[in-house]
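stage 2 :: seqdesign
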């Protein structure tokens, strides 16, 4: 069997797998001469991610090019190395398959065929993803939690060191949220926190990181930002938080205290950066809140006196 024909047959097998079609147990599709696909059901069209009119008369190899490319690579590697290959396939498919490609040798120790076995691992992949997301994201706001934030901070520090660039770390603590929480109830307070998370996220770039540390505290990593740029961004963010929120059709007003520190100006250690930003945030609160406070050396000296 030619390689292209083998790949066509393998894709055909994957596309017809019951696990791929959810509730539709019997998708209608027929094959014409030369293994050309004649789809008669929209389920098949969804599987190959192609409109019905574009799928008519095309072979599986033409419909699922990414999958075909990976299959071709796996089969070619199996033949050229003579070794079993393990691959996962999911391109263009709503399911994920763990496939094994085993070379079959004849009496002359020549490879005359490749046997493929497939196992649907979609459920396992979904479970793994949910576990990963639960471990790294805040369930209330959908933002990265402290664990993922710490990893992002360390990665940002390494990147900035490599590029010889600066970045800012901001700690944000919401003011007047306690009074707000006492009035509409805990569920409304949770909805307010979700709105706050959305508003903060809308004020930053895609390359930045917004995280919720817990309670009413958020943190923000602003990449490639110096002290002046960070102060401008923090001031704009503070003004954004002071705009009215609407929770359960009721206007809610809050404010925030923001502390910021700069890498590498203030320090070069992730843990110390977090400590500095935290000190600056509490300095902002001690001065009445609703303000931005940059980390200064006197904050460390003041702390050492206690």
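stage 2 :: out
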């Amino acid at each position: 069997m030619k390689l292209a024909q083998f790949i066509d047959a393998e894709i055909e097998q994957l596309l017809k797998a019951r696990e791929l079609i959810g509730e539709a147990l019997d998708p209608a599709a027929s094959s014409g001469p030369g293994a050309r696909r004649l789809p008669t059901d929209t389920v098949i069209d969804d599987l190959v991610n192609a409109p019905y009119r574009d799928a008519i008369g095309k072979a599986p190899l033409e419909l699922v090019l990414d999958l075909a490319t990976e299959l071709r690579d796996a089969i070619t590697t199996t033949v050229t190395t003579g070794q079993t290959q393990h691959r996962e396939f999911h391109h263009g498919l709503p399911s994920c398959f763990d496939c094994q490609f085993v070379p079959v040798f004849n009496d002359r120790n020549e490879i005359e065929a490749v046997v493929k076995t497939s196992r649907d691992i979609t459920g396992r992949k979904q479970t793994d993803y949910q576990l990963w997301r639960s471990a790294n994201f805040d369930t209330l706001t959908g933002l990265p939690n402290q664990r993922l934030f710490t990893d992002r901070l360390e990665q940002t520090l390494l990147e900035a060191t490599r590029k010889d660039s600066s970045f800012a770390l901001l700690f944000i603590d919401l003011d007047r949220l306690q009074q707000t929480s006492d009035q509409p109830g805990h569920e409304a307070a949770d909805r307010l926190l979700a709105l706050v998370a959305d508003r903060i996220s809308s004020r930053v770039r895609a390359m930045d990181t917004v995280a919720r540390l817990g309670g009413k505290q958020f943190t923000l990593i602003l990449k490639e930002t110096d002290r002046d740029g960070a102060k401008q961004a923090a001031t704009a963010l503070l003004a954004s938080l002071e705009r009215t929120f609407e929770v359960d059709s009721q206007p809610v007003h809050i404010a925030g205290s923001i502390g910021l520190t700069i890498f590498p100006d203030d320090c070069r250690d992730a843990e110390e950066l977090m400590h500095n930003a935290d000190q600056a945030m509490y300095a902002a609160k001690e001065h009445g809140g609703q303000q931005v406070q940059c980390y200064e050396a006197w904050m460390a000296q003041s702390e050492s006196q206690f």
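stage 3 :: structure notes
- The first helix runs from residue 3 to 16.
- Residues 137-304 form a domain with the Alpha-Beta Plaits fold (CATH 3.30.70.270).
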